Amino acid sequence: MAAEGGGAKPVTQSRMENFRKVRTSEEESPLPFPDLPPDVVEMKVKEGSKIRNLMNFAMAQMELKGSRQIVFSGCGKAVTKTITCVEIMKRKLGGLHQVTKVRYKTLLEVWENQDPLPGGPAQNLTVHKNVPSICILLSRDPLDPNQTGYQPPEPCHGLGTQLGEAGEDTSSSSTKGLKRPLPPPHEELLTKKLQVQVPDSPRGSGSTDRQLDHHH
């Protein structure tokens, strides 16, 4: 490109605008965990994957089909979503051993020329991109604690689980998660009115009684 002189850069940019990415594929590589069972489930998380769909399938494998281990993997922009799925599963199931491996993976992108030369062959570009990749193994069975990336199961915290469930209930129904920990609304409202209005009342408790009766 340098040999084309000063006009090379704008010409190159103009030509690249005619290319459109038509396909992306990942370089196949074995999972970085030894002694995995041959039927282990690998959840390949993509940038456009829906977390709800991923978790529905993964939870079915672990709870309904009795899988002992599951792997979540993702690369590039899907790394954050991969970690999110793992944290959700750990919170829902509990007692899971974890091993995390970080590495680089090669993506192959194919770009197609949308404005080829008249009568010429189709022009495609293949781009190789090295992107960060993460693989996380979750296991109901104990794993080697000496291997790199190992995390033991989080300690059981019943109260924390209940609070988490209450938080989930609150997100779906604002009253369901709040009625149990708070006192009845009538008693709370009555207490607040007594505390605020009694000192300011010029005639003592009689005035307070009338105000309460008026409100009720």
Q: Low-confidence spans: pLDDT under 50, at least 5 residues? A: 1-14, 158-216
What is the beta-strand fraction?
25-35%
3D shape = elongated
Quaternary class: single chain
Structural class: alpha+beta
- Biggest β-sheet description: 6 strands, mixed
SSE pattern, N- to C-terminal = HEEHEHEEEHHH
Give the termini distance in whole angstroms: 84 Å
The Cα radius of gyration reads: 30 Å
| Strand elements, count | 6
On the 0-100 scale, what is the average pLDDT?
74
Helix content bin? 25-40%
Q: Please, how many helices?
A: 6
Describe this entry's structure for a reader.
This protein has 216 residues and is α+β, with helices and mostly antiparallel strands. It is 37% helix and 25% strand. It has six helices and six strands. It has helices spanning 8-16, 51-64, 79-93, 158-172, 185-200, 205-215, and strands at residues 19-26, 41-45, 69-75, 97-113, 124-139, 150-151. Strands 1, 2, 3, 4, 5 and 6 form a six-stranded mixed β-sheet that branches. Helix 2 (51-64) runs parallel beside helix 3 (79-93) and helix 5 (185-200) runs antiparallel to helix 6. The longest helix is centred in the C-terminal third of the chain and has 16 residues, at 185-200. The protein is elongated. The termini are far apart. Mean pLDDT is 74; it is low at 1-14 and 158-216.
In short:
This protein has helices at residues 8-16, 51-64, 79-93, 158-172, 185-200, 205-215, and strands at 19-26, 41-45, 69-75, 97-113, 124-139, 150-151. Strand 2 (41-45), helix 2 and strand 3 form a beta-alpha-beta unit.
